[in-house]
Write a structure and sequence with these properties.
With 232 residues, the chain is of the alpha/beta class. It has one domain: Rossmann fold, CATH 3.40.50. The protein has 7 helices and 9 strands. Helix 4 packs parallel to helix 5. It starts with a strand and ends in a 5-residue tail after the last strand. The site of NADP nicotinamide-adenine-dinucleotide phosphate (NAP) has 28 residues, from helix 1, strand 5 and helix 6.
């Protein structure tokens, strides 16, 4: 099975790549700006089991047409699963947020998945699974926290995009789901909730995520699934 995972350089994405790399006949194109840890992991992997290709790419400022697509063609890479996991957060009182904050969060959490899904579609196989990383903050009616307005709004938007795309891509037999993560101990969590301990470690969450990427679409399509055991 062939995976593209964004935000694979650390946190949930990195641990998910690690989990998937233990599965036979797995190819993973692992995207992040910083690929240092991915390069180290790729060297440890038994090539008879799986293959990790780290790819340094900025999903906001990088050119999909000039860089990512030619690279995918060169690898002869067809996609069975796209995990739009990369994310950005701004933790600031709403009144202090400026246009740059808005752009950082919206471009990373919404525009980049939109562009990636649209531009990668010709390379996505029938029967594939697209999974978008959402957040409990983006779930309607969930607990909300001061300072996270832009972030939560971006996750609400990716959740709705997920529902719409699941409908629109049905005829191509491509499923689209959104995992609304609760608290997971990562750098992003520490920015959102300084001094708090998250309920789950990223390797524990990655055990669930890797299983879900592989066969979650046998059970769900167009769903926003809360994956959370605590608030926050
Ligand atoms: N941790 C939680 O409690 C929690 C809760 C709810 C939702 N989530 C969501 O889960 C996902 C993973 O979060 P995490 O906690 O694992 O965060 P993290 O540890 O901060 O990792 C974020 C990843 O996104 C990548 N990234 C950010 N901007 C990028 C860009 N412009 N181009 C390419 N890569 C970019 C980062 O890599 P580089 O800096 O190397 O590019 C990094 O690999 C995010 O979408 C987040 O919003 C997390």
């Amino acid at each position: 099975m062939n995976f593209i995972i964004t935000g694979a350089g650390k946190g949930i994405g990195f641990e998910t790549v690690k989990q998937l790399s233990k599965i036979h006949n797995t190819r993973i194109l692992a995207i992040s700006r910083n690929v240092q840890k991915l390069n180290e992991l790729a060297e440890e992997i038994n090539p008879l089991i799986s293959e990790i290709t780290p790819y340094s790419f900025d999903i906001v400022n990088g050119s999909i047409d000039n860089n990512l697509l030619p690279f995918i063609k060169e690898l002869d890479f067809r996609i069975d699963c796209l995990f739009n996991n990369a994310g950005a957060i701004v933790n600031k009182p709403f009144a202090a947020c400026d246009t740059q904050d808005f752009n950082t969060v919206i471009k990373t959490n919404l525009e980049a998945p939109f562009r990636l899904i649209r531009d990668l579609l010709p390379f996505i196989n029938e029967g594939a699974h697209i999974v978008n990383a959402g957040s409990m903050g983006g779930v309607q009616g969930s607990a909300k926290f001061p300072g996270l307005a832009l972030y939560s709004a971006s996750k609400g938007a990716i959740a709705t995009l997920t529902e719409c795309l699941a409908e629109e891509l049905k005829e191509k037999k491509i499923s689209v789901n959104c995992l609304a993560f609760g608290s997971v101990q990562t750098e992003m969590f520490s920015m959102a909730f300084p001094g708090f301990d998250a309920a789950l470690k990223s390797n524990t969450m990655a055990e669930f995520v890797s299983r879900f990427l592989i066969d979650g679409h046998k059970f769900f399509n167009g769903k926003i699934l809360p994956v959370s055991v605590s608030t926050p």
